[in-house]
Each structure stands twice: as C-alpha cells, then as structure tokens.
Structure to design on (131 residues):
C-alpha cells in the first residue's frame, strides 16, 4: 500500500507534538499558582431616584468602579491593583447630573472582604457594612 505524499505520518505528528507541548506549558498557569489576594467585593443597593457613579478613593486618587442605576442592585469587584488588602479606602457616590458627591466612612480592606453599601435617595442617610 502506497502512502500519499501529502498525508503526514503518525511519527511526524508525534514529533511535532513533542516539540510544541513544552513550549505551551509555559503559557498556561494554574489559577492557584501565585494568584495573589482575593479581591474585595462591593454590593451596592441604590434606593434613590438618580443613577449613581460608584468610585473608590485611595490616597486621594479616585478609581471608577461603575454605574449603579436608580432603584437597582449592582455588584462590583475592587481589584487588588486599585486597592490591595490592608489599604484604607472610602467609597464615593456621585449622582449623575449633580455636583454633590457623597463619601462613605473609611474602611480597611481585607482579602475577600464583602462591603454592602445601601444608598438612600438622601445620600447622607446611606449605610455601609461589611460581611
């Protein structure tokens, strides 16, 4: 039986695979290998009539997390690159179309911390707790 010229043999395929697999191994890293600290999570309940831009303030710098639409719930990750565990942050609620910005009490982040922020229509009456 004559083998077609263009059809690669099993031997060639095995050699190619043996050469490629070690190169690909360096590209894949298990999630647990040096994954670092688990990010904190912010759960926002907006009970107000205005859409709110939610930000984190750390060291005077503001980092936008996203938008919490009126009368809705949203969950945001606080990436360790923005605010690593051990850092003290404040949360900022900036109603769309308003000059007023509400600043939460300061809180120290921990790995995997869950912050629950309930925003009222009158932002001064808002509450922040941890879980």
């Amino acid at each position: 039986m004559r083998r077609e010229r263009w059809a690669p043999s099993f031997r060639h395929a095995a050699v190619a695979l043996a050469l490629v697999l070690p190169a690909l191994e360096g590209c894949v890293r298990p999630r647990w290998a040096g994954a670092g600290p688990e990010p904190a999570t912010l759960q926002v309940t907006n009970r107000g009539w205005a859409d709110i831009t939610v930000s984190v303030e750390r060291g005077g710098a503001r980092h936008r997390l996203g938008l919490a639409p009126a009368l809705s719930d949203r969950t945001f990750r606080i990436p360790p690159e923005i605010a690593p565990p051990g850092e003290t942050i404040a949360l900022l609620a900036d109603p769309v179309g308003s000059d007023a910005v509400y600043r939460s009490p300061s809180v120290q982040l921990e790995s995997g911390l869950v912050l629950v922020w309930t925003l009222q229509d009158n932002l001064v009456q808002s509450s922040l707790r941890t879980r």
User: Anything to note?
Assistant: The longest helix spans residues 10-25. The mean pLDDT is 87. The domain at 40-130 is CATH 2.60.40 (Immunoglobulin-like).
